[in-house]
Each structure stands twice: as C-alpha cells, then as structure tokens.
Amino acid sequence: MDPRTTEVIERCGRGSLEGTMRFPDVLKALGEVGVTHYHADFLRSEKTCYLRSGESHVGALPMPAVEIATEFSAGQMAAAVKASQQEGLPYPEFLVRARKAGCIGYVVYLDGRRVVYSGRTGEEHVEYFPPQG
After folding, report:
1. pTM score, whole prediction
2. 12 in Cβ contact with 4 (< 8 Å)
3. Crossing angle for the helix pair 91-100 and 74-87, nearest 10 degrees?
4. From residue 34, how far is each of 23, 60, 113 by CA, in Å?
5. Is residue 133 pLDDT above 70, yes or no?
6. Which residues pair with 117 in a beta bridge?
C-alpha cells in the first residue's frame, strides 16, 4: 500500500478519536485515497479500510470500557447518530452510546453514502448520508 494512503487512513483514525476531524472530513480524505468502505469492528477493537485497488488496511480502534448491550436498539442507535450530527457528540462518546445500543460494529459505504450499524443477531440500522450541497 502506498505510504501516503496509510498515513491518511491513520490520520483520519486519530483525528476521529481526538475530535480534530469530523465525519464529513474523514469521508472526504478517505475517498481521495481510494477507500470505498470501512468496517469498525467493536468486538475486535479494530477498523479495516478497503480500497478500490483491492488492498486493505487494519488499524486499532480503542474501545471504551462499556459492555455492549445484549439487545440491539435501532432507536438508541439513531439517537446517537443524531447527537453526533446535530450536537457535535465526540466520537469516543458516540462509541459509548453505540455499545449501549447493542451495536457490535458498523460499515461505512462511501460510494453508497450510507452507514449500516449491526447488532449481535443480525439486526441492522441504516443511516444515509445527508444530501450533498
């Protein structure tokens, strides 16, 4: 993998966790280096980015010390997303709320302009990106 691509992916991960990069900025930067989608895996505490070239990059995703709820709540998941979008909820706090909602991970589809959040038994909640201005 091109070292610049790796650097951008890792910078986006750090920026999300530190609160220095917002989701739209992360999407723009990742798209520019050829990322088509990425998977945040709460069970393995890692994030995998997949590129158009067929390459992938796996990085650590530090998880908060909050148990993942047994039952998935699409309503709680939607509320966490809304708080992130409208109230500027920091990413680490978003992770806490997502785990409390029973989310085991999510996939962001840059080309499909959506995020699919998943529960332990296959439940899903889909959020579509806001229309491009």
Report:
1. 0.93
2. no
3. 170
4. 17, 20, 15
5. no
6. 106, 125
